[in-house]
Amino acid sequence: MADLPSTSAALARMIDHTALSPSTTAAAIDRLCAEARSHAMFSVCVNPCWVGRASRALAGSEVSVCTVVGFPLGANASETKANEAALAVAAGADELDMVLNVGWLLDGRADAVREDVAAVVGAAGGRVVKVILEVALLSPAQIEAASALAVAGGASFVKTSTGFGPGGATVEAVAAMRATVGLTIGVKASGGIRDAATARRMIEAGATRLGASASLAILAGWDAARTA
Questions:
Q1: Which of 19, 139, 150, 176 is the most exposed place for a label (fewest CB within 10 A)?
Q2: Which CATH superfamily groups domain 8-227?
């Protein structure tokens, strides 16, 4: 079992505060950044068109800027993903969450999946790359295979879900990912995490980062849950 954060402030340093809806506005990005800055969350996770705005809003703070690549389907050409990653880095992104090509995985094209990850890692210039597996589309064995291929491609993290697929993070998927990647690779649980109790279960299963749009509700419930 992973160590649980002792306070909501410690938990905040595990959260990527997220706004990835296609209807996200500039005002919503500004609010997201202000919330993340106020609570010293680890990062904001935004769509690529908002990276520059978020980077400027968070300049001088300890909050990083994360963006997505090949989102939400993962079916872009590898060259497109690599170019998107390079543009995001140039705009100020500190971390990249790329979507695995699930179709290639299901077709057994292991080399293509690994090389797709490697292309984004190469374009990231040493920045953290997390690979989104979309676990609701995969069997337990496929989750393990996808996790291993992500690591082989140079990823720093594996991540459960986009939040736009048929399901989100599960304890079982997080545990399988952790068992596959070992202790040196991060595991990000994302998709459907809306309260402190769910966050706790994901961390206990092995998550070291949480992606959530309900971050404020999670933090508000954390200290109360631990002292109840």
A1: 139
A2: Aldolase class I (3.20.20.70)
